[in-house]
Amino acid sequence: MTKKTRNNINTFLRYFILIAVGIVMVYPLIWMVGASFKTNSEIFSSVGFIPMAPTFDGYKRGFQGYEGMTLLHFMGNTYKFVIPKVIVTVISAVITAYGFARFEFLGKKFSFAVLLSTLFLPQVVLNVPQYILFNQIGWLDSYLPIVMPSLLAGDTYFVYMLIQFLRGIPRELEEAAKIDGCNVMQTLWYVIVPMLKPSIVSCALFQFMWASNDFMGPLIYVNTVAKYPVSIFLRMSMDSDVGFEWNRVLAMSLIAIIPSLVVFFAAQNSFVDGIAAGGVKG
Amino acid sequence: MSFKNKKTVLTMPKYKSRRDFINKNFGFFFILPWWIGFGIFKLYPFIASLMYSFHDYNLFRTATYVGFQNYISILEDKLTMKAFYQTFKYAFITVPLELTFALFIAYILNFKIKGVNFFRTAYYIPSILGGSVSIAVLWRFLFKTEGLINMIATKFGFEAFNWLGDPNGAFFVIVLLRIWQFGSPMVIFLAALKGVSADVYEAAAIDGAGKWRQFISITVPLITPVIFYNFVTQLCHKFQEFNGPFIITRGGPLRSTTLVSLLVYNNAFKNYEMGMASAIAWLLFLIIMTFTIIAFVSQKYWVYYSDEDGR
Question: With contacts defined as CB-CB under 8 Å, which chain A residues touch B46?
Fold first, then answer.
């Protein structure tokens, strides 16, 4: 076997593996799209994803939602806490990271050690007292328990990620800004934020995804159906539709992930860069 | 520098006035909000849950101190211990499989592959959506007795299997859900592999090392810091797995997918037994801590950092 044929075989094998894995990864999603247009009797009778008798039934009934509240109502609920959470996360994380990366102060080392340790602090050990705390201050059945911790830079992962990025940015521009008479807040706003923009974008994107996928938070804290985000609503319909409205459940599930998919495809490079940078520099 | 000199440096007045003190520590104000948040939402709950764990504390009754009784009950209760056992099994099956797979695919993608970005995106989508309830719904459809997986299996002559009705089958389903989301460790591995310089490979090729040998003897050792990072973070996550077993298999059948976080949830938010829930959570925390510490201590034996100052 010459070297060339061996190379060709290797190349072929690589593509074969990549494509095979790719199909396994993506086919369930494609099947989901197709199945949401199938009739209920067809969903569990054909492996293919192209519906034989396409129907919008699933979507029509899916949008009806529950007791007069449409599916859009529940999706709206999701973004009622996701969007504020993303905004406050970005603001608080940038300010905290700025403090850590650019200033010297008493106890900085200690503060940073505490910050790092919270990266490894499992949420499961905090849930019970947090619930009791939020219960006492009357925040249950609102989105405040989900948003407020982020306002105080509770998402340490992003703070850490931004500190790492900031450390990689030279300080010359800030010094120039200082000479030109900028105070620290102006420097932050006019110099740091523009330079940090790519990392800020990836923080915002990740927080958007994680917050929209968050299930346990709303499950614990929100208990009025009218305030359910779409994730909890989906689970509720899944439980109540033990019966036969499969295309409806699939259609609703699909609609629920469309915003995330759109955001992902619009900004996929930021995602990949963000995760690679966060991981490797960690 | 002699000891005496050092001492004079230390005793010199560091700040000229109170204003000077504030000016020199001004940066602290930027991290003050984080400290406040840390105190309220992390430190206080952390200590409070330790306190609760020593109490018989139902949310609707007053708490009574019971010492280690909750912990003893956990150790004596077969079902609770089963949840811990299943969680161990889950974490130590899922993480190695997921990481091996992620590294393998990243390794292939690192060759000059046309359409790297396309593949990378395709593999990454499940990671982005994987935690959502929508995907959990989809997985229930895939693994129903009459679902897609069985339809394909019967086409190849296998018998339909009741995945969600069988303890091992259901366990396998939630493991597979997480392996399907190997995208994010893969992206991290890929970035690390790109960082390994081509020179090392050339040197090895001249010495006659084949591709496989190069991978085992050069690539893997060089990216151990990244393997380490992925291993620790994934292990932390998997020990706390909740969504998959809660939504897809609902803890069953025969409690085979009742992982510890489900137990905490059931105790705390179904029965409102906050003391018991805290004790279980703390036990899980101690286990996660132990493994994290073992990982960090052991890293000097197997993790290779190119720059010795450890960044």
Answer: 121, 125-126, 129
